[in-house]
Amino acid sequence: MTLRLGVNIDHVATIRNARGGAHPDPVRAALQAQKAGADGITAHLREDRRHIGDQDIERLIEAIEVPLNFEMAATQEMLAIALRHRPHAACIVPEKREERTTEGGLDVAAHHGQLRPFIEQLTEAGCRVSLFIEPDPVQIAVAHALGAAVVELHTGKYVELCFAGRTQDAERELDRLRQAAADGHKRGLEIHAGHGLTFDTVKPVAAIPQIVELNIGHFLIGEAIFSGLDTAIRRMRALMDEARSEAAA
Ligand SMILES: CC(=O)[C@@H](O)[C@H](O)COP(=O)(O)O
Ligand SMILES: NCC(=O)COP(=O)(O)O
């Protein structure tokens, strides 16, 4: 199975919003990412609009040729926006206003009743519905029962453990990712993964054979300051491909 790279351009908007105005433009970044080989663009329209704004979503839909993965909380406001734009994919994520970033996966087991109508309406509108969850067997089973097409496994914990030098715990978390990917794939779910991935942490995740898409943003946008977006994306793509061919050998 080939592995797609979705580039998340949220944090281009974070830099723009630090001063207001229009520069740097996340849509320009998305077009550059597309040219550098991104297979898709991911953007998270947060309730507080701290990075991506409503107009960015409208402009992205107009401008990009690769699929848009629209990340959204399960709120009526976001549902109405998604139904208006009908992006290729709608990824439902948990959201807390006070958090610095998306801290964990959506608890689909606890909120299945609330989530079902969102999944149904988005699917009906032609979006591929993705649920951003922890690599946990119960979450996988409920995501499947809810009729989602895709699950995106939260890799944040694995990355944090790697950077804390907690090698054994990171390996255990990687095993949870492997198990969840295999289990979800067996159930017919399409498997994506992402959050916090970097050049140093991407390869073991990219090597998991059932994963078909990685969504990566914050690190690539940060790295672009030093090497340029094109170089950062091409390097990430190369590491992903390397991991895949090493795993297949
Ligand atoms: C859900 C998710 O993982 C992404 O949206 C990404 O982390 C960028 O958004 P935040 O940094 O605002 O969480
Ligand atoms: N869903 C994960 C994503 O889009 C990118 O997350 P990050 O690389 O910005 O942490």
Automatic annotation (TrEMBL):
Main location: cytoplasm
Marked site: Transition state stabilizer: E152
Any one Gene Ontology BP term: pyridoxine biosynthetic process
Classification via InterPro entries: Aldolase_TIM, PyrdxlP_synth_PdxJ, Pyridoxine-5'_phos_synth
EC number: 2.6.99.2
Active site feature: H44 (proton acceptor), E71 (proton acceptor), H195 (proton donor)
Binding annotation for 3-amino-2-oxopropyl phosphate: N8, R19, G196, G217, H218
Localisation: Cytoplasm
Binding, 1-deoxy-D-xylulose 5-phosphate: D10, H11, R46, H51, T101
Keyword Transport: no
Pathway given in the UniProt record: Cofactor biosynthesis; pyridoxine 5'-phosphate biosynthesis; pyridoxine 5'-phosphate from D-erythrose 4-phosphate: step 5/5
GO MF annotation: an example: pyridoxine 5'-phosphate synthase activity
The family this protein is said to belong to: Belongs to the PNP synthase family.
Purpose: Catalyzes the complicated ring closure reaction between the two acyclic compounds 1-deoxy-D-xylulose-5-phosphate (DXP) and 3-amino-2-oxopropyl phosphate (1-amino-acetone-3-phosphate or AAP) to form pyridoxine 5'-phosphate (PNP) and inorganic phosphate.
Self-association and partners: Homooctamer; tetramer of dimers.
Name this protein carries in UniProt: Pyridoxine 5'-phosphate synthase
Organism field: Marinicauda pacifica
